[in-house]
Specification:
This protein has 2 domains: about 260 residues, Zn peptidases (Aminopeptidase, 3-Layer(aba) Sandwich), CATH 3.40.630.10; about 120 residues, Alpha-Beta Plaits (2-Layer Sandwich), CATH 3.30.70.360. A hairpin with a 5-residue loop joins strand 1 and strand 2. The chain has about 400 residues and is α+β, with helices and mostly antiparallel strands. The relative contact order is 0.21. It is elongated, with a radius of gyration of 23 Å. The longest helix has 21 residues. It is about 30% helix and about 25% strand. The strands form 6 sheets. It has a 6-stranded mixed β-sheet with strand order 1-2-6-3-7-20, covered by helices on one side. Strands 9, 12, 13, 14 and 17 form a 5-stranded antiparallel β-sheet that branches.
Length: about 400
């Protein structure tokens, strides 16, 4: 790569201040409006050619030729909620910086990468280089609650279909080229109510659910294993029952199951495994894929089935190899090429839409969703410089 872009000292300081602003703005899923406005304002301030908010609330910024190939940087604006603030050393929204590390909710998951993407694009703008295509930086919404949904809206309803996608989820400045998929299943077991003083007169739905749970424990050791993605998993994550009172036999019990999927595993296969357990145990029940339903901060009604496809991009794919070359050139080290343990918007872009997708972002995966979430500022700056240089290779320069 003949030309290498870098951030000025002023832009490095501005990037850090912008990241602090983003972390200080609460943005739980469906409530990203204030953070979205702050992101859009920063995009306009640094000189993006076009900035708009789509129907679901994604903030979309574009620089480039207005035609030709499209490279899209994906970062999500929303965060999980803080379960117990007492576990944090500082206020989760303080964006405290100590010893070069920024602490705060969303610091690594994933406002650090999103801020870096904006300033990577600014370096391209300031360079005056004319790209032969368009670079999009998109701050998506509701990724934490329904990954892939906002990207589906952007592609299928807004009509922006990129040729390449870079996800900024934490990779510790390495490359991720895939992840397991997941499906959320709901099993409802049925019983017959009776007074708890005479349980023999009824049928306890909880006991039926217990049989299913034991079957799921046995299933866990039998699941497929992929040489790259690892082993499929199954876990019961929530149980609820219904009865007339606590001294009545419950007539309904519901189990919620998180099933992680490897290559070749489908929603139908995962549901069939559970149905076989139910048939073997002769439990009266039904199995459903759960449905996601929410209103976005823009008022858009969101609905989606809670199935998310596994995906991988071959290690020899051009996107993987070109990005590895840029990272080595900019950071001076050869990146490892691996996978994520968690799920990302790649479930749609790669898993459904078939768009070449990889991950590259600052910070360590282990700090996501954890107390004292954190990201090293030096890593955010390093990511920004990689984001600045990737378009020079993936969107070839014009003479």
């Amino acid at each position: 790569m003949a030309l290498k872009l870098s951030l000025s000292l002023d832009d490095q300081r501005a990037l850090g201040a912008f990241l602090q602003d983003l972390v200080r703005i609460p943005s739980p899923s469906t409530q990203e409006g204030e953070a979205a406005r702050r992101l859009a304002d920063e995009m306009r301030r640094v000189g993006f050619s076009e900035v708009f908010v789509d129907r679901i609330g994604d903030v979309v910024g574009r620089i480039g030729a207005g035609h030709g190939p499209k490279l899209l940087y994906n970062g999500h604006l929303d965060t999980v909620r803080v379960a117990d603030a007492s576990l944090w050393q500082w206020d989760p929204l303080s964006a405290k910086i100590q010893d070069g590390v920024l602490y705060g909710l969303g610091a690594v998951d994933m406002k650090g990468a999103l801020a870096a993407m904006v300033y990577g694009a600014k370096a391209v703008i300031d360079s005056g280089i004319q790209l032969a295509g368009d670079l999009y930086v998109v701050g998506v919404v509701q990724e934490e609650t329904c990954e892939g949904l906002a990207m589906r809206i952007l592609v299928e309803e807004e009509g922006i279909r990129p040729d390449y996608v870079i996800l900024g989820e934490a990779t510790n400045l390495q490359i991720a080229r895939g992840q397991r998929g997941r499906i959320e299943l709901k099993v409802t077991t049925f019983g017959s109510p009776a007074h708890a003083s005479a349980p023999e007169r009824g049928e306890n739905a909880i006991y039926g659910a217990a049989k299913v749970i034991v079957g799921l424990e046995l299933l866990a050791s039998q699941l497929d294993e992929d040489p790259f993605l690892g082993k499929g998993t199954v876990a019961v994550t929530q149980i609820e029952s219904h009865a007339g009172s606590r001294n009545a036999i419950p007539e309904i019990c519901r189990l919620y199951i998180d099933r992680r999927l490897v290559s070749g595993e489908t929603a139908a296969k995962a549901a069939a495994e559970v149905k076989r357990i139910i048939a073997r145990e002769q439990v009266r029940s039904q199995v459903e894929v759960t449905q996601y339903s929410a209103d976005s901060y823009t008022g858009y009604r969101c609905q989606a089935e809670q199935y998310f496809a596994p995906w991988t991009l071959p290690e020899n794919a051009p996107l993987v190899q070109k990005c590895a070359e840029v990272i080595e050139d900019v950071l001076g080290s050869v990146p490892t090429i691996g996978r994520w343990a968690f799920s990302t918007d790649g479930v749609y872009t790669a898993g459904i839409a078939g768009i070449p997708t990889i991950g590259f972002g600052p910070g360590e995966e282990r700090f996501a969703h954890a107390a004292n979430e954190q990201v090293r500022l030096q890593d955010v700056l390093a990511a920004a410089e990689v984001y600045a240089n990737l378009p020079l290779v993936l969107l070839s320069q014009r003479d």
